[in-house]
Amino acid sequence: MIELARELGLALANSCEFTQMKQAQSDFEQNEAIALLMQELNEKRDRLIAILSDEEGDDLEAVSLTNDIDRLEAQLKESPLYSELVSAQSAFSALLTAVNDEINACIGAETSTSRSCSGDCGGCGGCKH
How many CB atoms are closer than 10 A to CB 72? Predict the structure, then answer.
């Protein structure tokens, strides 16, 4: 049984979706502009947390930091590398969901599609509820 799980893990690691996701992560992490943006974003988040945890925190600075964080996040989301990363992660997640659904269907467990079962079996694909 464990050997089959290992084979499945290796097959997932060699899948197009996984290799594309790893490449997108690498491209994202190695981009100097994004690294600087992420550093600034993390510093501002850390500062905001510190201000919010201080009883005498500066409300104006907190508002300013929140605006800066929103601006930086929007700037990050505009990056094609960010879009590629999110898309690649989504594709790999969909693959994992499909694999888990197949395993769950084989053992009679709930799948991602059977979770939305209304109880009316008229159009059912076989959730076995």
Answer: 17
d(CA 87, CA 8): 23
Largest distance between two CA atoms of the chain: 61
Report yes or no: 105 and 128 within 8 Å, Cβ to Cβ: no
* Separation between Cα atoms, residue 27 and residue 13, nearest integer Å: 18
Residue with tokens 């490449």: 23
Q: What are phi and psi of 117, to 5 degrees?
A: -65, 130
* Position 15, amino acid: S
The pTM is what? 0.75
**What pLDDT is recorded for position 121?**
61
- Among 8, 6, 3, which residue's Cα sits nearest to residue 96? 8
Q: Tell whether the torsion through CA atoms of 54, 60, 63 and 68 is positive or negative.
A: negative
